[in-house]
Amino acid sequence: MWSVGLGELHDPDAVVDAVSSALTLREGQDAAPESLLVEYLAARKLLLVLDNCEHLVEPVAELAGTLLRACPELRILATSREPLGIGGEATFRVPSLTMPESDKRSAPAERLGHFEAVDLFAERAATAVPGFAVTENNQDVVAAICRRLDGLPLAIELAAVRVGVMSVEQILHRLTDRYGLLTTGARDVPARQQTLQWCIDWSHELCTPAERAMWGRLAVFSGSFELDAVEAICADPVAADQVVDVVGSLIGKSILIREADAAGAVRYRMLDTLRDYGTERLQETGEFGSLLRRHRDWYEHVVLRAESDWISSRQAAWIVRLDVEQPNILAALQFCLIGSSEADAGIRMAAALYPYWRVRGRLREGMRWLAQLLAVQDGTPSMDRIKAVRVLGVLSGLHGDPEASALYVERGGALAAQLGDRVAEALMADAAGHHALVAQDNATACRHFESSLAVFRTDGNLLYLT
């Protein structure tokens, strides 16, 4: 079984690349990515899980249809808020957790544990109050809470954690009061959505002002993130020395999830529903744009550090770090497409990701981002633009497109001549050497590489010498 998470992917053209990356397939020079997937999967019997497809239904449906027609032993499980709409699709609506019916007499407490909703409530409540258990004294109230929340797992988790500050009777009373208010509001919204929204509203109200501010600010992250990123992006107005405490409080209230990898590194993440809610609250404050910019600046810093550290004993660690940071890096690059004033940072990031994209075989991904960012940037000759054009030329050649490689080498050479910088000219000579290799002109390639190496040795940049 292979799982591909699409929740953080926003580019429809990147769906095929995301699946290829999850299967650890490297791109070929001539074959289309879809063909490589078909070739890999055709002789294999496996289950491919495509998770969170609702915002990418059309490209996912097209890819799924192609793969299923060509790969007889392949099975695809797609999670989405709407069907893909392809032949042979069987839809299964994920039900709420099982829970006691309201018109049944009280069952023995041990029998209630057979209901998924009650079991989840008891498990989460016990994390807030060690020793908590469903007993004959509280079983009816717990069952009523689960019914009131329609058996929705997230809503039950948020309610259960409140046993740390109130009794189950108080929880039910507050849920009942709030539910009454909601049913007099927007009747065109499904009751299930009302219940979840209201439960998150309630959880938000029970947070301190500092926790609410942090909740909203953490919504700028995509996927998981580390504490140093929180401190760099979200610390204000929370004092820097309070960040750890506030993050810990949000973990305790089930707003944040703490995860640790095999090496012991701790990261945090937020469920999509809670992040969407936090985004709405953040937009109300007027800080959304500035937080996105700070988010972009931080991940630009991470990528540039990885590039400067690439030729060292830490390269393997950086590859792992960039792997896990992909959702945030891609979100930062996406932000850079909003205008030419932001594109400069995106150009620097994309060019710095060249060794990572090459190691991971994500040539098309790198080419796509570089082309989009260069199109948004104003085109003024600069060292950053020349580096980006050089990388785009090299990647195009490696991907088997010598015509595009030649075009970018020509454009980059003209920019370097305008800039009049010897390092810029050496970079484009290096790109010309790579193009000559693709064209199987080894003598010309050697001439270009020798001229560029003479400058790179003086400049001292180890990455250009490899």
From TrEMBL:
<feature type="domain" description="Winged helix-turn-helix">
    <location>
        <begin position="210"/>
        <end position="282"/>
    </location>
</feature>
<dbReference type="InterPro" id="IPR027417">
    <property type="entry name" value="P-loop_NTPase"/>
</dbReference>
<dbReference type="InterPro" id="IPR058852">
    <property type="entry name" value="HTH_77"/>
</dbReference>
<dbReference type="Pfam" id="PF25872">
    <property type="entry name" value="HTH_77"/>
</dbReference>
<protein>
    <submittedName>
        <fullName>Transcriptional regulator, LuxR family</fullName>
    </submittedName>
</protein>
